[in-house]
TrEMBL record:
Entry keywords, A to Z: Amino-acid biosynthesis, Glutamine amidotransferase, Histidine biosynthesis, Hydrolase, Lyase, Multifunctional enzyme
Catalytic reactions on record: L-glutamine + H2O = L-glutamate + NH4(+); 5-[(5-phospho-1-deoxy-D-ribulos-1-ylimino)methylamino]-1-(5-phospho-beta-D-ribosyl)imidazole-4-carboxamide + L-glutamine = D-erythro-1-(imidazol-4-yl)glycerol 3-phosphate + 5-amino-1-(5-phospho-beta-D-ribosyl)imidazole-4-carboxamide + L-glutamate + H(+)
Known pathway: Amino-acid biosynthesis; L-histidine biosynthesis; L-histidine from 5-phospho-alpha-D-ribose 1-diphosphate: step 5/9
Keyword Amino-acid biosynthesis appears in the UniProt entry: yes
Residue ranges occupied by any Glutamine amidotransferase domain in the UniProt entry: 7-89
Pfam families: GATase, His_biosynth
GO molecular function: glutaminase activity; imidazoleglycerol-phosphate synthase activity; lyase activity
Record function comment: IGPS catalyzes the conversion of PRFAR and glutamine to IGP, AICAR and glutamate. The glutaminase domain produces the ammonia necessary for the cyclase domain to produce IGP and AICAR from PRFAR. The ammonia is channeled to the active site of the cyclase domain.
Entry-linked CDD domains: HisF
GO biological process, one term: L-histidine biosynthetic process
Stated name of the protein: Imidazole glycerol phosphate synthase subunit hisF
Top-rank lineage group of the source organism: Eukaryota
Membership in a protein family: In the C-terminal section; belongs to the HisA/HisF family. Belongs to the HisA/HisF family.
Record lineage: Eukaryota, Viridiplantae, Streptophyta, Embryophyta, Tracheophyta
Length: 421
């Protein structure tokens, strides 16, 4: 962190317009930033500055002089606000987009609300959005069909219109053993990126692999294909656990791991590491070599302590590494963000694991996305008020239309938590 702020600076932050600009609206709004460096205002450049943004201190968000216009944020990922900037880049005579009624203006970095779509093929070979418990995604019926909650491209488009700040795809198709042969999922990314103008993350099977013909592919080649298809970030799960274990054992960076390769070429902001831990209750902090928390309430057998054990393969296999130690390692190896799941909370609808999220978000200097357990709007304010999570992710409650995204955001606004409208 820089003075307590997470780096990279990822998310929707508020523009402050300094002067008339041919490409910027006069209204202060949230736009999407993702960067680890900044240009600072000074007497030498003050005549160029058309807007600033604050992240600990003011930095230059855009410049404008004559026919020269440039921005630090990403208009192509800033929703309708960003599209209006691009329209005026091309034709300065284009008027501003109509102002929507909002309850509160943008003032600082917003907390992000992310919609996650688990995608796999059904028995007919069609890709569907599904949801289950520990990858059990079949209906408990006579037909035992794959649970179908919608088509991925259509559902992602609807979530964009509903106000999702990012869309995350988890690829759980059979192509995970041959990611570059996964043409359907690549098409999902391409079609989604044509109509969805917020960041897209994709995860599932991104690693080094050898195909059936004996040809070896690096994780960088796999990730590059996803980036070319429209992904902005890739999420690495099980492979990252093995990488961290190897690093802890040797203490050496090889430069060949998927985290190191992809972050070196595309930047660490493009690498999200997904952590899938489960809580393990213990009697004493001395029982394990990993980071331990003291419980606010006793465990099932009166235990006073617990640690969080990492898993792989969708929670089916435990690994000898703690979530705390894992998070610290992947940050050092080049991850730019952490997606923090919790096996104990997944699908329960009883809220995020606040102890876990606080533990990890306090331990690392990169943004943390809270995942697993959301069941109502209050769970989102709870995680933002009690941890340093930068974003909160949900899936089932959005797919089943139990909790609309806008209801989450209106609740957060009511709790004085900054969100993008």
């Amino acid at each position: 962190m820089s003075n307590g702020f997470k780096v990279p600076h990822i998310g929707w932050n508020a523009l402050r317009i300094n002067k008339d600009s041919k490409i910027l609206d006069e209204t202060e709004k949230h736009v999407y930033f993702v960067h680890s460096y900044r240009a600072m205002p000074s007497d030498a450049n003050k005549d160029w500055i058309s807007s600033t943004c604050n992240y600990g201190e003011d930095f230059i968000a855009s410049i404008s002089r004559g026919n020269v216009h440039a921005v630090q944020f990403h208009p192509e990922k800033s929703g309708e606000v960003g599209l209006s900037v691009l329209r005026r880049f091309l034709d300065p005579s284009v008027s501003s987009t109509p102002k929507k009624s909002i309850t509160k203006g943008a003032s600082k970095l917003a907390k992000r609300v992310i919609a996650c779509l688990d995608v796999r093929a059904n028995d007919n070979g069609d890709l569907v959005v599904t949801k289950g418990d520990q990858y059990d995604v079949r209906e408990h019926t006579k037909e035992n069909e794959v649970r179908n909650l919608g088509k991925p491209v259509e559902l992602a488009g609807q979530y964009y219109l509903d106000g999702a700040d990012e869309i995350s795809f988890l690829n759980i198709t059979g192509f995970r053993d041959f990611p570059l042969g996964d043409l359907p999922m690549l098409k999902v990314l391409r079609y989604t990126s044509e109509t969805v103008f917020v960041p897209l993350t994709v995860g599932g099977g991104i690693r080094d692999f050898t195909d059936g013909n004996g040809r070896y592919y690096t994780s960088l080649e796999v990730a590059s294909e996803y980036f070319r298809s429209g992904a902005d970030k890739i999420s690495i799960g099980s492979d990252a656990v093995y990488i961290a274990e190897a690093y802890i054992k040797t203490g050496l960076k090889t430069g060949k791991s998927s985290i190191e390769q992809i972050s070196r070429v595309y930047g660490n902001q493009a690498v999200v590491v997904s952590i899938d831990p489960r809580r393990v209750y213990i009697r004493s902090p001395d029982d394990v070599e990993f980071k331990v928390i003291k419980l606010s309430a006793p465990g099932p057998r009166g235990e006073e302590y617990a640690w969080y054990q990492c898993t792989v393969n969708g929670g089916r296999e435990d690994r000898p590494i703690g979530a705390y130690e894992f998070a610290k390692v992947v940050e050092e190896l080049g991850a730019g963000e952490i997606m923090l799941n919790c096996i104990d909370c997944d699908g329960q609808g009883k809220g995020f694991d606040i102890d876990l999220i606080k533990l990890i978000s306090d331990a690392v200097t990169i943004p943390v996305i809270a995942s697993s357990g959301a069941g109502c709007v209050e769970h989102f304010s709870d995680v933002f008020q009690n941890t340093h999570a930068s974003a909160a992710l949900a899936a089932g409650i959005f797919h089943r239309k139990e909790v609309p995204i806008q209801a989450v955001k209106q609740h957060l606004l009511g709790e004085n938590i900054e969100v993008r409208i």
